Amino acid sequence: MAILGKLVKAGIDITSKLQFAEDTPEVSQEKQLRELLTEAKNTAFGKYYGFEDILKSEDPVSSFRKEVPIFNYQTMHEQWWARQERLNDITWPGKPDFFARSSGTTGKSSKRIPITKEFMASMRSVGSSMINSLHEFDFPESLFESEVLMLSSSANLDENEQGFKEGEISGINVSNFPDWYDIFYRPGKDIAAISDWDERVNAIAEQAPGWNIGAIAGIPSWVLLMLKRIIERHQLKSIHDIWPNLQVYATGGVAFETYREDFEAVCETPLTILDTYLASEGFIAYTSKPDTMAMKLALNHGYFFEFIPFDERGINETGDLLSNPLVLGIDEVEVGKEYVLILSSCAGAWRYAIGDVIRFESLNPPQIKITGRTKFFLNVVGSQLSEEKMDKAILELAEANKTTINEYMVGAIKNEAGDYIHQWVLVSEVKPSGLANKLDELLKSANKNYAVARSKALKGIDVKVISKDQYTSYLSATNKKGGQTKTPKVMKTEKMNALLEFISQP
């Protein structure tokens, strides 16, 4: 492994030096759009929306926007994707190889996103670009001599009646790893195929001392639970007792900051944290430079991006897109501004609103941060609280109480008098006394619209605290337990009431 580590590091260094100058983001994106349109022009979708004519126009980007409407999952699925299991060439040539069941946090049921062979190749290409960017971090050779632990959803995919295999995107990726990945990939396909989450993590904990882990990838909440179980199983002081070469954690799926302190508590030496934007719809961005959590957009990997301002020009008061929103290209966005991301991809997604809100941190290269979900915009009575502002208030609340609060849920519900309040449920060991007033003050200072709402229609807030065991039990009861599962931070009234009923049970 030592020789292999030297070769890998040398290869990454050489690749970085041989890279040619990239096109401007605007030119790169137009090329991507042309390639996507060319590939899909003879599909049912391409013929219906005139891809052939769009390609012949002087300005294909403008023509594309004019001819093709913006889709959300419901409209794309009902009008197009639902036909792909029976028919060829619907939104992309041929039929999908897989369907990814989205583990996202909005909607009443799982989404089924088509996964094509070109899409799988695209995700591998972005992954390779991320690995090549490690040259910027100057990691020691020991990292490249070690193994990578990917905490995915189950790689044991389901097969539907039409013969298509389905699973979460991380499980689909793992199930398609070539055999030579076994050299460095852990926990291996056998353990990854275990469907039951607790059984899978127990198997990982049992095998952990025999591995030389240098990097971990996965959603923070579940990775943290896994690390704690390993430490408990082997009576360790920190995870570095058995994995001294552990140096990198690639996070994703949710904001990391509310977990940072707990990760530091289980590690003897600090980890380099890399953020990733890896969704069922694509491997969209990744951290490519040290000392930042901003992520470089994957502009040359089979995706075409558009951006809708996350303000009155693009959304209404509930966070839904306007019927005719302002749409911007990569050359029109501004640093520090928030946008709803619109994606077209080689999986046959066209002008597809994923539901994420991003903010540009730089333009050269284009680097972003995810600031929340459009549906995590709490505005029932004009409070206008974004996920980022709520995260910030929760971090400050935890710091003020010298504790950690990894997870929280909030919803607008009516009290006994029929007035709206914000109901918060925090996952922590902190005592609930005084939390409501403190959180209320933090939110007022963070957002003037919230302060105005509190003086009018929003009559108060209530805070309940549950343990991590209660939270895990709730996830199990709602079939939300697993390596890639995320839970909604902003809940609708019915879901919040169901959660309150669950935690009130003895």
From TrEMBL:
InterPro entries: GH3, GH3_C, GH3_M. Pfam families: GH3, GH3_C, GH3_M. Residues 390-494 form the GH3 C-terminal domain. Residues 299-373 form the GH3 middle domain. GO terms for cellular component: cytoplasm. It comes from the Bacteria. GO terms for molecular function: acid-amino acid ligase activity. PANTHER family: GH3 DOMAIN-CONTAINING PROTEIN. This is GH3 auxin-responsive promoter. It comes from Algoriphagus yeomjeoni.
